[in-house]
Fold:
Amino acid sequence: MEYLLTSQQMKMLDNDTIDKIGVPSIVLMEKAALGVVSEIKRNCDKIEKVLVVCGSGNNGGDGVAIGRLFHLQGVHVRVVFIGDIQKTTTETKRQIEIAKKYGVKIYNTFDEVEYNVIVDSIFGIGLTRNIEGEYKKAIQLINNSNSFRVAVDIPSGISSDTGKVMGCAVKANLTVAIAYKKLGHVLYPGTEYCNKITVSDIGVYGAKSIGSNFSYNKDDLCKIPVRQRYSNKGTYGKVLIIAGSKNMAGAAYLAALSAYKTGCGLVRIFTQDENREIIQTLIPEAIVTTYEENHLNLKILQDVIDWADVIDIGPGLGMSNSASQILKTVLEIHQVPMIIDADGINLLAKYDYLSNCNTKDIIITPHMKEMSRICQCNMTEISDDIIGAATKVAEKYSLICVLKDARTIVADYRKRVYINQSGNSGMATAGAGDVLSGMIAGLLAQGMSLFEGAALGVYIHGISGDEAASQKGEFGMMARDITENIISAIPCHMSI
Structure:
């Protein structure tokens, strides 16, 4: 698990380390500088001439210390200070005094020398305004160079809370995050400006205790339910897939196949009559129950709902009157966890069903366009604060929101937030969302909690996509390629 902090959370942990633990701020700054120097050496082959560009905040103090350390190692260093040197923080002022005593000169202008490395230490994580004037010129100069560009903590110009570009930003080759990654390191477009990210441990801890946002890594695959040696198909749960309208059988197939591949014991598909033959051909392992578009039998619907341990509704369902009636009925009588995807979400937005039902066992999985219908706002507003958008919907309706994007967000009404870092552009393809809904259903059927099942499902979905991309390439990937790699993404662990 990897914790991802806001700027406020990072400042709070910094202050706790200084005030409660008693580590002087100058010591933390020195450790940060040592960490950055170490990462530069690890990632850059040629370090003969180094330019360090500093601002007046503590990030600038880190930069001055980095310049001093390289100077003492015999490297040609030029430290350029941007802004009013009289307005530096106490710690940065102290670093300047120390550097000067070691013979480091502080300049306020750039020279014509070609540098191997440029260290960006202009702004840190506290940036809240757009960059203008001499700061903008300095960033443009850094970006126009052919040097290896290193950002201290986060590239100057990137909001550490949203990943937004504040007018302009340094395009780093390497970003050395101090203590923890921040949200702006992983959210778009900020993550593209960071390029390679490493984390330097300076002795500031406590992210778990403050309930910070988080991502999973491969160590977290141990959360997948253990397989029992003495078991049967009922042990691993029954998933009901309510999906597929006329000419949309593929959505039901992909969701059902993914639920099976993720480990559930039995899948039933409730779909229109026209899909029976193709679904039974594609996935004979599934039970198929059908209905007529204009003659929906509510008794049969009740029976399949009662059969299920988990319900996944919406992929390819359509927007017909019967589809609406099915969703309304399921919302009214379901007693098990429920994932609402695709057309199910569009129906929710159209008829506002969420306002009048028990939602505590519901997961919705909208993409950005579907989310805009739920929120009744444009997609730009959502993308500007993707975490805030997912959290607001989760809190408003007391459910779990899986907001699908290049960085999928899983938020629940208890203010927990998971940010996914697996996956690739090849997954922007028809049917990938159907695969995800089936995977989440498969994990829930095996007893995972809604939030953890949603988060882990998103993570494994991305890993499966990464495996597919390594084999097929991102240009030619299809949703079925993701399903074919679910098995290789999930480690096999069985109780003894």
